[in-house]
Amino acid sequence: MKKLVLFMMAIFLMVPCVEVTAQSKALQKAHKKEYKAKMKEYQKENWKLFGSSHSLDVALLKHYDRLNALGEDGHEIVGIAAKFKSKNIGKQMAVNNACITYAQEAGSYVKGRVVSDMSGDGVTTDKEFDNFYAAYERLVEKEIKGEMQESYTVIRDLGDGTFEMQVFYIVSESSASKARIRALENAAKESAAAQVYAKQVADFVREGFAQ
């Protein structure tokens, strides 16, 4: 039973965490609009490009080019750090924040679908499943670092001797799915939830692909 659940949830995890419905041309148009708005924001709020010889303008254009190339498979993650004095420490804080953000999105996506479908069938999820989600998020956070590609980083002086930093990453969801599956397999070792709800989890996954 445990193998069945792992197999079915692994297939489910191959679906991107963030569902994007826009077509390619519409996506490119949206990115152009975002680019103009983002440049105005950076100029107004005194953000500067960090750790690159390019101009902020070029870095942002390349960022949206990469997202356009990936299409629906591309996912932007932003890591944020504030009130730090050491830029190196700030960068590490932002990296960790990005990993946590992605892990929480991944966990919420799986949890929302499981709870919605299983509760609708009259099945009550218990604390054991909460432990499973917590383990899953923690392990995704650990696994996803190798799949995140840094695109560009901006920094600004807060005027009190400290800085604020934002690090932008682009994640290919098809590649990231491998990290989520590894996290799933390891999380299952720490929880009996997958075995308890084997049939229900398998059913909602099948229904999702049938639509």
Description:
By secondary structure, this protein is of the alpha+beta class. It is 63% helix and 16% strand. The chain has helices at 2-13, 24-44, 56-70, 87-120, 127-143, 173-189, 193-196, 198-210, and strands spanning 48-49, 74-84, 148-157, 163-172. A four-stranded antiparallel sheet has the order 1-3-4-2. The longest helix is centred in the middle third of the chain and has 34 residues, at 87-120.
Tell me, briefly, the overall form: globular
Order of helices and strands: HHEHEHHEEHHH
Structural class: alpha+beta
- Unreliable spans: 16-22, 201-211
Side-by-side strand order of the widest sheet: 1-3-4-2
Mean pLDDT: 78
Please outline the major beta sheet.
4 strands, antiparallel
Number of DSSP strand runs: 4
Helix run count: 8
Residue share in helices?
55-70%
| Structural Rg | 20 Å
Distance between the termini: 25 Å
Our estimate of the beta-strand percent is 15-25%
Key features of this structure:
alpha+beta, 8 helices, 63% helix
Summary?
The protein has 211 residues and is of the alpha+beta class. The chain contains 8 helices and 4 strands; from the N terminus they run ααβαβααββααα. The chain starts with a helix and ends with a helix.
Q: Any chance you could write out the topology, listing elements then pairs?
A:
Elements: H1 2-13, H2 24-44, E1 48-49, H3 56-70, E2 74-84, H4 87-120, H5 127-143, E3 148-157, E4 163-172, H6 173-189, H7 193-196, H8 198-210
Antiparallel strand pairs: 1-3, 2-4, 3-4
